[in-house]
Amino acid sequence: MITVNNLTKKYPNQVALNDITTTFPAHQTTAILGPSGSGKSTLLRSLNLLELPTSGEMILDDLQLAFNQVISNQTILKVRQQFGMVFQEKALFTHLDVLHNLTEGLIHVKKLTKAVANQQALKLLEQFEMTELANRFPYQLSGGQQQRIAIIRALAMQPKYLLLDEPTSALDPELEAQVLRILRSLAEQNTSMVIVTHNMAFARQVADRILFIDHGNLGYQGDTENFFTSDNPRIQQFLGAMTF
């Protein structure tokens, strides 16, 4: 369980997050929704301290962080080790083939032997029916394949939580569907995931709970179906803008 209390992130000319208090349950999928520029990605990146909040606190299992104090590099590293992060950009190592992309962190961070790392990586590729891609380089993959490998690479590190920042936004609908299928599979396996997405159909189908962020404020947190059937005017306006 991740708990954030009174989380605030201020920039010189903007309040990106305003007094956010919420939870991210383990073994569930939480979707963060909201208009562009509302603070969704800032909230996601605050969880693994890619963004350092201005104030508030975060409780990650038995670790408690107060953001009005200096957070040491050792603590930042300890927090980040709990998370796998997948960005909009695939960000694979272009000079390495797929297998080496998956084993790089296992060998240099987890300190596994090359043989064990290869075994674990190949097992993941087999699990997601992508073994044939093991020896290909990123330029030989489609955008959907690259993003699926990025997700598998994050999973290879066995994080407690998987964070995904609009992982399909740069893909066409066909490639997006490929990535969404792997995320649906992970959700069905009760993987702990937090996803920023603009895909309302996916969020409604897969998410256990919804956070709605609007201009840095938390406008809704709770059950997925209750969000999509809400009579709240702002939520109705947001969902209505998604149809045309």
TrEMBL record:
<dbReference type="InterPro" id="IPR017871">
    <property type="entry name" value="ABC_transporter-like_CS"/>
</dbReference>
<dbReference type="InterPro" id="IPR003439">
    <property type="entry name" value="ABC_transporter-like_ATP-bd"/>
</dbReference>
<dbReference type="InterPro" id="IPR027417">
    <property type="entry name" value="P-loop_NTPase"/>
</dbReference>
<keyword id="KW-0067">ATP-binding</keyword>
<keyword id="KW-0029">Amino-acid transport</keyword>
<dbReference type="GO" id="GO:0016787">
    <property type="term" value="F:hydrolase activity"/>
</dbReference>
<keyword id="KW-0547">Nucleotide-binding</keyword>
<feature type="domain" description="ABC transporter">
    <location>
        <begin position="2"/>
        <end position="240"/>
    </location>
</feature>
<keyword id="KW-0813">Transport</keyword>
<keyword id="KW-0472">Membrane</keyword>
<keyword id="KW-1003">Cell membrane</keyword>
<dbReference type="InterPro" id="IPR050086">
    <property type="entry name" value="MetN_ABC_transporter-like"/>
</dbReference>
<comment type="similarity">
    <text>Belongs to the ABC transporter superfamily.</text>
</comment>
<dbReference type="Pfam" id="PF00005">
    <property type="entry name" value="ABC_tran"/>
</dbReference>
<protein>
    <submittedName>
        <fullName>L-cystine import ATP-binding protein TcyC</fullName>
        <ecNumber>3.6.3.-</ecNumber>
    </submittedName>
</protein>
<keyword id="KW-0378">Hydrolase</keyword>
<dbReference type="InterPro" id="IPR030679">
    <property type="entry name" value="ABC_ATPase_HisP-typ"/>
</dbReference>
<dbReference type="InterPro" id="IPR003593">
    <property type="entry name" value="AAA+_ATPase"/>
</dbReference>
<dbReference type="GO" id="GO:0005524">
    <property type="term" value="F:ATP binding"/>
</dbReference>
